Amino acid sequence: MASAVGEGRKLAQAESRVISHPMAPRKRNRQLRPPRPVKRLPQALIIGVRKCGTRALLEMLYLHPMVQKASGEVHFFDRDENYALGLDWYRSKMPLSFKGQITIEKSPSYFVTPEVPERVRAMNSSVRLLLIVREPVTRAISDYTQLRSRATPSAPAHPAPPAGEAARPFEHLAITADGSINVAYRPIAISLYHSYLHRWLEVFPREQLLVVNGDRLIEDPVPQLRRIETFLGIEHKIGRRNFYFNETKGFYCLRNDTTDKCLRETKGRKHPRVDPAVVTKLRRFFVQHNQRFYELVGEDLGWPED
Ligand code: A3P
Questions:
Q1: 9 has pLDDT over 80
Q2: Which residue has the CA at smallest separation from atom 18 of ligand 1?
Q3: Mean pLDDT on 123-149
Q4: Atom nearest to 266 CA in ligand 1
Q5: pLDDT tens profile 289-301
Q6: Which end of the chain has the smaller Cβ count within 10 Å, N or C?
Q7: Beta-bridge partners for 133
C-alpha cells in the first residue's frame, strides 16, 4: 500500500500545482486527481481447506503492500442468504484498495460447497484461487480439536458439534464399531480433497488454482509465499525479515514495519494424542484418495502412507 499511497501523494502535489494555474484546463485537473481507494470485488480467493492454515496464509499475504484483505470470512458464495444479497453487498464487505492492489477474501467452506465454483465464475472467470492443504489425517485431527473446543462453555458463540460427539475420542468418531473408516464423519470427509476439487477443475482451468502446502507454510513460510507472489503477479516483497519463530507458540509470528503479531490462540492448538494404530489405519485409507488428488493437481505432495 505504501507505494500506492506514495504515488497518490505525488499526484496530489501535481494536481495542486495544476489547479493553481489559472489556464489549466478542467479535464486535466480531473485526470490528475489523486487516486482514491475504493472497495473492489476480490481478484483472489482463499477457498479452503479449513484447518490447513487459511488464516495464517491470509495474514501472511497481507504483509505485502499490494494486498488488501477482507477482515472476516464473508461467506458470500456458500450461504444462499448472503448470495441473494448480490455483488454490491459482497463488494461492501471488501476493504478499500488502490488501483493495482489485490483484494483477497477467504472463506474455507467455499471449497466444499457444491454451488460455489459456478458462482465464483459468474463473478469473475479469471479470479485466482488459492487452495491450502495439509496432510489429511493431521487436518482431520485439527478439525476434531476445533470442534471439541467449540463444545466447551468458553466458546459458546461458535456452532457446536452434534450432541455427544464432542466428548468422544477422535478414534471412536473416525473409526466405526466394525473397524471401517467413518467417511460420514465430517473431519474425515473434508480431508477427501479430490472429491471436492474435481468440481472446481470442471469450472476453472488448472492454471488458475494454486495448491499451497500448509505443512510447509508452517515450517518455512517464505518459499511458499514467493510462489504465491509469482502466481498473483506481484513483486517478491515478503521475506525472512517478516517472520520470527515464537518458541512458546511453536509457530512463526508475523512482523512488519510497525507491528509484531502472532495468530490467535485458536490457531496452533495442541492436538490430543491419537492412538498411533488409528493414525496408521487412516493414513493407509487416505493413500488412494491422496493419489487421486495428486493426479488432479499434477503434483505429488508426498504425504505419509502409514
Ligand atoms: P492447528 O490449530 O490444528 O495447529 P485455519 O486458519 O485454516 O483454521 O488453520 C489453522 C491452522 O493453521 C492451525 O491448525 C495451524 O497449524 C496452522 N498455522 C499455519 N501457520 C500458522 C502460524 N504461523 N501460526 C499459527 N497457526 C498456523
A1: no
A2: 53
A3: 98
A4: 2
A5: 999 999 999 999 9
A6: C
A7: 213
Residue 1 lies in a domain: no
- Mean pLDDT is lowest, of 19-33, 84-98, 167-181, 243-257, for 19-33
Question: What is the average pLDDT score of the chain?
Answer: 89
85 alpha carbon to ligand 1 midpoint, in Å?
31
Per the omega criterion (within 30 degrees of 0), is the bond before 49 cis? yes
The residue to mutate among 217, 219, 263, having the most atoms of ligand 1 within 8 angstroms of its beta carbon, is 263
Q: Residue 56 falls within a domain, yes or no?
A: yes
Is 100 within a domain? yes
Residue 7, pLDDT score? 37
Residue that the C-alpha cell 476445533 belongs to: 146
The number of domains in the chain is 1
278: pLDDT strictly greater than 70: yes
Q: Model confidence over 148-180: pLDDT tens digits?
A: 998 765 544 445 566 566 679 999 999 999 999
- Indicate the top mutation candidate among 267, 270, 271 to test ligand 1's pocket, ranked by most ligand atoms within 8 A of CB: 267
Nearest protein CA to atom 11 of ligand 1, as residue: 53
* 54: containing domain: 38-297
> Burial letters for 179-217: b for 16+ Cβ neighbours within 10 Å, e otherwise?
eebeeebbbbebbbbbebbebbeebbeeebbbbbbbbeb
Q: What is the CATH number of the domain that holds 137?
A: 3.40.50.300
Best probe residue, ligand 1, of 143, 213, 218 (max atoms within 8 Å of C-beta): 218
Examine residue 87 and state whether it is found in any structural domain, yes or no: yes
Question: Atom 4 (ligand 1): residue with closest C-alpha?
Answer: 268
| The model's pTM | 0.88
Residue 67, H or E segment: strand 67-69
Residue 261 three-state SS? strand
For cell 492443504, name the residue. Answer: 133
Lowest mean pLDDT among 32-41, 61-70, 261-270: 32-41
